[in-house]
Each structure stands twice: as structure tokens, then as C-alpha cells.
Amino acid sequence: MHMQLLYNNKVVIFDRTDFGASNLSLPAGKCRYNDEALSVDCTAHSVLYDILSNTYRPLMVQTDVWCSSGAVNSNGTLIQTGGYHAGDHKIRIFSPCYDGDVTCDWIELPQNLTVQRWYSSDHLLPDGRVIIVGGRRAFSYEFFPKSFNNNNDVFDLPFLKETTDPKEENNLYPFLYVLPDGNLYMFANQRSIILDYVNNKVVKEFPIIPGEKRSYPATGSSVMLPLCLNSPTNLTVEVMICGGAWGGAYLQAMEGVFWPASRTCGRMRITDPEPKWVMEDMPLGRVMPDMLLLPTGDVIILNGARNGTAGWENAVDPVLNPVLYKTNEPDPKKRFAVLNPSTIPRMYHSSATLLPDGRILVGGSNPHVRYNFTGVKYPTELSLEAFLPPYLATQYAHLSPIIVDVEGQILSYGQKFWITFNLGFPGEELMVSMIAPSFTTHSFGMNQRLLFLDIVEIERVSVFGYKVTVFAPPSKNIAPPGYYMVFVVHQGVPSHSFWVRMQ
């Protein structure tokens, strides 16, 4: 249900704790007591997946993380918030292990959230705090660490109450993006605003997106399209939202009637003087899609269903084919490409994340009480799979750069730095992209962010060796402090990434 890539090339994966025992035992002596499902539970509901070795080890969460949220802070620690029942006020952390250390595990902090957070969204802010927004019956936001002048800060946000539909909600897991001016873009249901969270003030409201509802349980997905930093003082900021369901679809699905999912995507340049949604049709209707930014700047749309909504047994007809969206293709008729299908339905409670080698890690789908695998149309799915975007096809391997070194792994804002790489068959098209890994759950990659860096110079330093000099992002508003994957992209084919830290 939840996935987070860490800078040590491991992925934290976890699910709810109150379904009874899992198939994976915790290390000897570790057990949870007085849970909702079992008085003693010595099994794991979280794992740490090692990408390079394709292995995993069990982790222990103390309270129920069902439908919670998270963000990685500036030092690379996962801050994980909320959940269900005993977990709904909890703050947990997971810090990456040092090389060779296999003892790191979840830590539950004695400090709690001010109000319960279930189906909320988190985002790392330029000042290093994490903002936690919304949740079921939580029409407010708060921060971790707490604001500097008050240990119990919680701020009412009427926008969240205004966007709640009777009986359906359709405004949970709001889409959040930090903007280059430091304010927060927020989308819920069909509406969006800019929030000045420092002064607790809505400073702008945007037009309603046409068509269907877009937030949980009428679940669509969203990305902020790449920020191109060749002119950082005049940035274009564009948000894209795809998929969803009509209002009423959730209530109909509860009665066994599954309405067709949305086929539309909307793009809006929020920096325009008069922003408006520009709508496009996807090749396949989709509810519960996952949208991920690729190192090329294109968008992959995968997982989900053709009919219904999010929720238990509330969707049918899985969409097995990922779709590639070519962000900068000028002809709208050529922007979408249907890709090779999976054989595994990935619907409710599925998740996906971009890996440092350019693959997409996909897991989860369709919870059932007590891990029931029989008598249901779409049983709980325990496998992980990797999707290889078209740029990883063997016929493009000769175009992929191989990063040799990056000047300094800790970067200052606005500094000039270089990347050396090898390339056997150089062409003219070269870009350097920088991606913040997402906390992915319920069809939204929280904190996902892609920047195209400003290239100063490209030099040839040997027969197959090159050095590209670029500027680091100019401010914390454009790149909140923390860890990023840096890719060199040559003729649409990315290198393996290299981790850097902005501070």
C-alpha cells in the first residue's frame, strides 16, 4: 500500500497491521501486543527491499499505518504520519542504515500529531518541515516538527470542508506541490488553490477542472510537470491530473454497479495570468492510476481499473497496459502511447515508484480481510514486478550514458558542478534531470518533483568520456533540501542515476 525509495537504494514497503498474521516472521523476540486483530503478532507488516540484491528483510511497525502518509526529510529520514485506530495520531521515522548495518527499523516517536490523520497528504517544505494536510474529518493542516512558536499548532482550512461531497468525500489524499515562490498548490475534488501556509491564507483559487471528480475515492492521479531551470527567474509551472470517476460512482459501486472511469487528463499552467485547464483524452479510461515522472520528463501512467472507484471490491476490469505520455510532444494526437501489458491486476492499494536505474517498481493490490486469497475476483497480490519503460529496450542501450563521477555529493544552491560520464555514440540532445523520489500511496506520489538543470558547458575529455557542467537549483523553494537522483539523459535515454543532496 505504501512505498518510499531511500538514498541508499532500498525501498521501504508497508501495509496495515490489523489483518492478522502475515507470512513473514519478525526476528526472534520481536512481537506486537494488543493489536486490533491479534493479542500477540510476531509477523511483519513492513519490509525493506534491497534493489541491488533483489532481497528483503522484515521490519516492525508498532501501530496501524493503514492509509497513512509520508515524506522524506532533508537528511534522508522517512517521516511517516497517521493511520488508523491506535495509529491515527502517530509519527514514525525510518532512517536508512549505514552500509553493512542491518539493524535499522521503524521508530515510533513519543510526540503525536495534534489531530487524527487518516488519508492525509504530506509534503516537504523549503524550511525543512513537513506539512501534513487533511484526512478523514480533518479539515486542517499541521507541521512536523511543530511550528517554532507553538507545540500544538493546527490550522483550519475551510477549503477542505468545502470540497467534501456528502457520503463520498472525494477530497482525500489532496495533491500538493511546493511552488517556486514557496507557497503550496493544493488540489482536492475538482478545485485547487494556492495556500500561503506561513500566514494561513489562501492567496489564489483556480478554475474547476471539467468532468469527473479526481480525489479519493473517485481517485485520479497527478504530477507537477518538470521545471526547466534554464531561466529560473521566469519558471513555467504546470500541473497535470488524469483519471478519476464521476460523483456518485462510489455509492453505485457499493451496490455493485461500476460506472466507467474517466478518460480525461487536464493540464494547467498555474503561472499564466489567467490559468485554465486544457483537456486531453487518454487511450484508456482509468480510476486509481499511478502517475510517475520519468527521467526524460515524460509521464508513465499505470495500474488502476476501467470501471468503479477506489475502495474494497469497488472496481472491476483492471487496466493492464501502462500508457506513456510525451510531455513536450507538440501534436496532441501523438502524446499518448499504449505500452506492453502486465498480467497482474493492480487496483486498490497498489503502488509504484521510480527506481535509480530507470525501472518502475510496482506492487500491491486488492486487500481482503485476513489475507483472503479465495472466493474473490481479484485476490490480494503479494508479488513485486518491475516495468521497463521504452528507453530501457535493448536497441537503445548504446545511447545510455554511464555516469562516472559527480563533483561533490552535497550541493549548495546555485553552485556550478560537473558530471563526468562515458558515452560510445554521442548525439546532440543531452539533458540533466534531477528527481526527488516519491512517497507513493493511493495513486499519488507525494513529494515527486523533476527539475531539468541549466547546462553551462559540455566537454569531451577522452575518447568516450564527457563532462557536463550544470547549475544546481537556485533556491530551496525550487528544490526543497534533501536527496535527489541525478540522471544524464541522451537522446531520450537516461543513465543510471547518481544520488546528490541539496542543502
UniProtKB/TrEMBL annotation:
Domain Glyoxal oxidase N-terminal: 1-391
Provenance organism: Anisodus acutangulus
Keyword field contains Signal: yes
Keywords per UniProt: Signal
Listed name of the protein: Galactose oxidase
InterPro entries, alphabetized: Gal_Oxase/kelch_b-propeller, Gal_Oxidase_central_sf, Glyoxal_oxidase_N, GO-like_E_set, Ig-like_fold, Ig_E-set
Domain called Galactose oxidase-like Early set: residue spans: 401-502
Matches recorded under Pfam families: Glyoxal_oxid_N, GO-like_E_set
